[in-house]
């Protein structure tokens, strides 16, 4: 059942080239410049004309929502708010019929997310679900939706569901941008073609597994970890930190790299490993200066970089390479080494990676 892998989590990490391809199958046809999400067809008008997109979710699914905020705003120019379902439901939020609400949930059973949906529905908003489990409560409670088709995820730590959620949200953002005319036809087609290469690039990223295992051995006794990224990689930093804390029980914080100097920088000394996501994108130069700041304080630096990077390689203690891609698609690659890092550290610490203490796969109580 674990397909020869020692744990479900590792199996699910390695399934990602296939699960992402499954998610795009029958939807993305780059050769013919076509992208269709069946679930969106009847609601495209509402989506296109929405005043605002509200995304609600918990945990890792909320991180996928944060990535989507960057995607929707970049490609479709519609303002986005990303809300923890538990806060949203109790805040008496301002919601109207012109809002398009996207609820993201792997299990489709998360109590807070379900309650947030019911609230938004009662105010007349359109609710769209991005769920993995077919026929789940959230899938049934929404007006429409697109399944992530990642297949069953057994490990409590979400991995392949996260990349499938981002894949669906990316396709939604591209469709929306194209329909609204905020994304030109040529750019659209270029992005569709690039999106199609992602499963192969994930496969290449997975080849780093042995390197990451070696690095993990060096850091398995760390007491704390900091994860820093900017732009599309800011949510990836949050996700990397969550993965590490939930399965290895090492305290970890994710931050937008620029926020470091507003507090967390005080934590940095030679005992503090800092994971930077420093891929070649619009914020690369800025991240490089943040790396210098950490280095000057003797922090240990593990950096996720774009293949062929030499600048960060010269500064970091360890680099983990991911293939080059469009800036908007980087999270699908940059999260992979962080999943693998947390996995190995947890295994080396003797933790039960598939069933971490105090956690359940679906959180059906608030
Ligand atoms: O099933 P959901 O996507 O609604 O679950 C949300 C969170 O409970 C979930 O992502 C949790 O944070 C994971 N254990 C993270 O790995």
TrEMBL record:
One of its GO terms (cellular component) is cytosol. It is an enzyme of class 2 (transferase). Its EC number is 2.6.1.16. The active site is at 361 (for fru-6p isomerization activity). Homodimer. Catalyzes the first step in hexosamine metabolism, converting fructose-6P into glucosamine-6P using glutamine as a nitrogen source. This is Glutamine--fructose-6-phosphate aminotransferase [isomerizing]. It comes from Belliella buryatensis. The gene is glmS.
